[in-house]
Sequence to fold (223 residues):
Amino acid sequence: DTAVSQTPKYLVTQMGNDKSIKCEQNLGHDTMYWYKQDSKKFLKIMFSYNNKELIINETVPNRFSPKSPDKAHLNLHINSLELGDSAVYFCASSIQETQYFGPGTRLLVL
Amino acid sequence: DQQVKQNSPSLSVQEGRISILNCDYTNSMFDYFLWYKKYPAEGPTFLISISSIKDKNEDGRFTVFLNKSAKHLSLHIVPSQPGDSAVYFCAADTQGSNYKLTFGKGTLLTVNP
Fold:
């Protein structure tokens, strides 16, 4: 009965490829997020959706496109992957301020 | 521009003693603060939070103290246990920000048996 799940857990791919990461939450939360944790270990928000509506869109290259088919899912599609995209991507969901995180997807771009 | 700073990258304490993790912030608009704990290869887990209208919040072995004038908060863990060994992240939020949390860089706590 995982609360926030992400697939895949690991993703190794070549530069220039397009990849997607999926996220699902079964907590009934209205808001979902994508975070990136880079090599310096900072956790930075990328996007947030509330009831399928984009409410936070940080300064992220437009190669990154989130999609929320329903309020329990928030997927992240990345086009034309670059070396600098290598990071751990965390999905989260929340009701008000407290956010619940998924286990992370470790992306390595070669 | 780091608005939330955790200046100690690591901390080591003996089992049974107190662990004190510190966090400083620069944005005076922050009005809600959270601590998260993260084990390797897992996502951060919510630990405890505090609103800016309070100066202390306690939950079992965990207590968070907030000093608004100093823009400083701390997490106390008493007594520390080996299972507390993890990275601890401080995060801050501003009302009306759509719950956009700003995280510190984290402090690795090691509790030695």
Q: What stands out?
A: The first strand of chain A starts at residue 4 and ends at 7.
